[in-house]
Please model this.
Amino acid sequence: MNRTSADGAPPVTSLDFDGTPVPFTPGQTVGAALADAGIVSWRTTRRDRAPRGLFCGIGVCFDCLVTVDGARSQRACLVEACEGQDVRSSDPDEPLPLPAQELPPHPESQTHPEESHG
Ligand code: FES
Model:
């Protein structure tokens, strides 16, 4: 979404945050765009489930982690917002889904070679 303001201000574009368009001004970080939109917390701590969002704002504390275009654990305060970017608040500490693969047979389900010859 591109909008040009009548007063000559920079065009406002939007990223996608958990399915909701969030406007930003070119040059803003994802974290700044979220904060400007009133979104101040987008994840929780693992143990206490305490809300987290921007804290240091300079890439030091790692409180602002988000998933950006599939890349997990990105610091929202450092990633520049881009048009159409897919930003998700999903917990970056959640285990990744296992890739679909064939599991090896369980050892107890295998027949010992000597047993198979009777
Ligand atoms: S707010 Fe501290 S690393 Fe992003």
User: Anything to note?
Assistant: The radius of gyration is 22 Å. The pocket of FE2/S2 (inorganic) cluster is lined by residues 54-57, 59-64, 75, 77 (CB under 6 Å).
